[in-house]
Specification:
two-stranded antiparallel sheet; single chain; mainly alpha
Length: about 90
């Protein structure tokens, strides 16, 4: 018996979203970031990406622990960047 379809989808999501989280580091901005257009909030793209990385990392913790740790580390780094000016 091979992997179930759900397991394959979860594995593909994990191995796609974790590298995407690290590649999106150039888009990370603090929560109170000001540009020439004025105050900008947190990017919705990064919100959705980090939420999905966090969820997929938690769901695949048992089988792919190293990649899940890298995904959780990316989420915590993103939270530090976003919340740093607030703290």
């Amino acid at each position: 018996m091979g992997d179930s379809t759900q397991s394959r989808v979860l594995r593909a999501a994990l191995f796609t979203l974790v590298p995407a989280a690290y590649l999106s580091m150039g888009l990370w901005r603090p929560g109170y970031y000001y540009s020439h257009l004025g105050r900008e909030g947190i990017s919705y793209f990064c919100d959705a990406l980090m939420a999905s990385v966090f969820l997929v990392s938690l769901l695949s913790w048992r089988t792919y622990r190293v990649v899940a740790v890298l995904g959780l580390l990316a989420c915590f780094l993103w939270l530090a960047v976003v919340l740093l000016p607030v703290v």
